[in-house]
Specification:
This protein is an all-alpha fold. It has five helices and no strands. The mean pLDDT is about 85.
Length: about 120
């Protein structure tokens, strides 16, 4: 008989199993939230008329605020719903989808509000 059977691992904690479908869904919800926030911030910055490199600061701040907002929504503790803290905090923050969505709406609403009027 193996003496290790039925015994917890050395750390005393049993490893948690993660359902891949649920994890994929949680990451999709977080990605949708980040894309939607990029769109809203692009509209706001475009209407305010921000120009140049200063326009990327609101994008970065809004992307970093998505994790606390997701926690307030009900993802407490985040490690229960996501693999790691890094996955929760930085998933899609610097992705091309969120950045290009932000730039697209920033430029459209800047042009509508400040050039074509």
């Amino acid at each position: 008989m193996d003496p290790g059977l039925g015994q917890p691992p050395l750390g005393g904690k049993t490893p948690e199993l993660v359902h891949a479908g649920n994890l994929r869904h949680n990451l999709a919800v977080l990605g949708f939230l980040r894309t939607f926030v990029s769109m809203i911030m692009g509209i706001a910055v475009g209407i305010l008329g921000v120009e140049g490199w200063w326009g990327f600061i609101p994008h970065l701040l809004s992307q970093l605020m998505c994790a606390p907002l997701m926690t307030l929504k009900g993802a407490t503790p985040p490690t229960k719903y996501f693999h790691t803290w890094g996955n929760f905090l930085f998933f899609n923050v610097f992705s091309s989808v969120t950045l290009l969505t932000y730039i697209l709406f920033w430029m459209i609403f800047y042009n509508l509000g400040h050039i074509f009027t």
